[in-house]
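Box 3.1. Reading complex inputs
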Amino acid sequence: QVQLVQSGAEVKKPGASVKVSCKASGYTFTGYYMHWVRQAPGQGLEWMGWINPNSGGTNYAQKFQGRVTMTRDTSISTAYMELSRLRSDDTAVYYCAREGDSSSQLSFDLWGRGTLVTVSS
Amino acid sequence: DVVMTQSPLSLPVTLGQPASISCRSSQSLVHSDGNTYLNWFQQRPGQSPRRLIYKVSNRDSGVPDRFSGSGSGTDFTLKISRVEAEDVGVYYCMQGTHWPPFTFGPGTKVDIK
């Protein structure tokens, strides 16, 4: 079954870091870029960046430059998104989303269920 | 950054009636490769987003044919020919032509009158 399984909810204090995982199954993990998108409570969708699981190359939204790090472990088909220096407005559901193949590139055809990160003192 | 706008932001619809959502971009979404990377996503209450349409008008596998996408340049439309109860949710357009960043519209909330 083709799916992305994300890690569980996290509660963090301001200034801390959080690392969210996204385990891919049912397809070749290294064959598709992985993106991260977040959604604050009751708000819209915001793109954070992508990682190329094959090379490890990354591209981050300017807004998150310096605070976000995307990595992967190909041996377990898992992508990670770490966000540091957390603030209360980082409270959101964080989704991993697979970029489509060559026929549907630059779009996200498979999404994880999301990981709620709550930042609160 | 490309700004995506949608209208309306709220769309009460009658079951069985058509619905239409407009999406506009602040610049043309025609890519240098000739493709237009405009996508539509559906987010049902409490669920993750699900892609419905990619490259303006290509429907994903498993998406009912009552959903259709059209448009060009900076103006795009998602149409539902006959709304069903399972169509309730928020619909987002997203552009992938001019990245980074990929940008989403604010969303249109569809509910039943």
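In summary: The longest strand of chain A covers residues 18-25.
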